[in-house]
UniProtKB/TrEMBL annotation:
It comes from Anaerobacillus isosaccharinicus. It comes from the Bacteria. PANTHER family: BIFUNCTIONAL UDP-N-ACETYLGLUCOSAMINE 2-EPIMERASE_N-ACETYLMANNOSAMINE KINASE, ROK (REPRESSOR, ORF, KINASE) FAMILY. The lineage of its organism: Bacteria, Bacillati, Bacillota, Bacilli, Bacillales. Pfam families: ROK (PF00480). Belongs to the ROK (NagC/XylR) family. This is ROK family protein.
Length: 314
């Protein structure tokens, strides 16, 4: 069996473990993401990798590489984090591959978190067996990954597939990327919650008096038949379906996988999106596409990160 170290660096936690080629996690460690960013994260990462390397050697496991997935903009060819994310302090302009190679001789692969999730999805998840795949991760933001001819689509330096920042309404609300009406402003958790809060506030006319809701709570209200939540969900589905149809037109995928925190327990969202796209787009392109719910676990970021060792590394 082949083994590698996978590391998933997120806004709240860093998860690192020893992963087999088949996606089994043999051993893992979790630490909170240091608040001060850069130096503390690099130090934490070093300790994790050293611990795991030691564990592997004690258990007679030969490691073949280290794969890292991180939030932010990554150049996978140089193993460099270009710019970070609002969720992690001071996490940009870092030659991460070089840093790790200063204490480990193993090959190091670095990519953004949604690309490695897409790898996990295509190797082991809902898109297993497909070679033209689109993944959307709906969470705090909306991230994307594209597999074309069986490989991640990279673009010039690895920045391709920012699918969440495709605008679907040029008169829409301003996204935190600076663009207007991005898919993210329809289908991310904070925006779903914001729409509901705005609707409620407009009726009550007093912002202070209204408790703010999460997207999870909006969905709970939707299932109870609440008229505001119904309106918010309809807007979300129209936005999401429009984005998905645009992507189908451009990439002609076999399958579109929707995952991320917003899609937790989200088969009903898949069903509504499917219904919506029946009336949208070019039939020859849209009709045959599978729209599926991600079936990955909490470890999938870690597993996908490790998979870079064998699939599509750089
Ligand atoms: Zn945007």
């Amino acid at each position: 069996m082949e083994y590698s170290i996978g590391v998933d660096i997120g806004g709240t936690k860093i998860l690192a473990g020893i992963v087999s080629r088949g996606g089994e996690v043999l051993y893992k460690q979790k630490v909170p993401t240091p608040k001060m960013g850069r130096n503390d994260i690099l130090q934490e990462l070093k300790e994790l990798i050293e611990n795991l390397t030691q564990w592997a050697s004690l258990n007679d496991i030969t490691l073949q590489g280290i794969g890292i997935g991180t939030a932010g903009q990554v150049n996978p060819f140089e193993g460099k984090i270009l710019s970070g994310t609002a969720n992690i302090n001071n996490w940009g302009d870092i030659y991460l591959q070089q840093e790790v190679n200063s204490y480990s001789d193993l090959p190091v692969y670095v990519d953004n978190d949604v690309n490695v999730l897409t790898l996990a999805e295509a190797e082991l998840g809902a898109a297993k067996g497909y070679h033209e795949v689109l993944c959307l991760a709906l969470g705090t933001g909306v991230g994307g990954g594209i597999i074309s001819k069986g490989e991640l689509l990279r673009g010039a330096w690895g920045g391709a597939a920012e699918l969440g920042h495709m605008t679907i309404n040029f008169d829409g609300e301003q996204c935190n990327c600076g663009f207007r009406g991005c898919l993210e402003t329809y289908a991310s958790g904070p925006w779903i919650a914001k729409r509901m809060n705005d609707l409620r506030n407009a009726v009550k006319g007093n912002k202070e008096a209204v408790v703010s809701l999460t997207s999870e709570e909006v969905f709970r209200f939707y299932h109870l038949g609440d008229p505001f939540a119904t309106k918010v969900v309809q807007t979300m589905i129209r936005g999401l379906a429009t984005g998905v149809v645009n992507l189908i037109h451009i990439f002609n995928p076999q399958i579109v996988v929707l995952g991320g925190g917003v899609m937790y327990d989200g088969q009903w969202i898949i069903d509504l999106v499917k219904q919506e796209i029946q009336s949208l787009g070019i039939r020859t392109l849209v009709d045959d596409v599978k729209i599926e719910l991600s079936n990955l676990s909490n470890d999938s970021g870690l597993i996908g990160a490790a998979l870079q060792t064998w699939v599509n590394g750089r």
